[in-house]
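Priority: medium. Attachment 1 of 2:
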């Protein structure tokens, strides 16, 4: 899979900044997935578990809510625990 850049900031601290091949998160309508070359998106992320896949592993973290911006093959998540 083609990677894209993912930056996750939780309570003002960067938790991850690197390559990602897929991202799945809870939105108000249900689970939503993103891969490279996705259309631009700005969304409110619902409380729950966000899953992201790096070239080496699958990672999970729980959030009480977040915002996601995806554009130009780069995703930024601003979350709170």
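Attachment 2 of 2:
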């Amino acid at each position: 899979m083609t990677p894209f850049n993912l930056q996750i900031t939780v309570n003002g601290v960067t938790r991850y900044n690197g390559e990602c091949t897929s991202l799945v998160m809870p939105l108000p309508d249900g689970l939503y997935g993103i891969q490279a070359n996705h259309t631009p998106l700005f969304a409110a992320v619902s409380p729950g578990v966000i899953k992201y896949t790096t070239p080496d592993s699958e990672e999970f973290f729980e959030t009480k809510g977040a915002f996601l911006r995806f554009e130009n093959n780069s995703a930024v998540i601003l979350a709170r625990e």
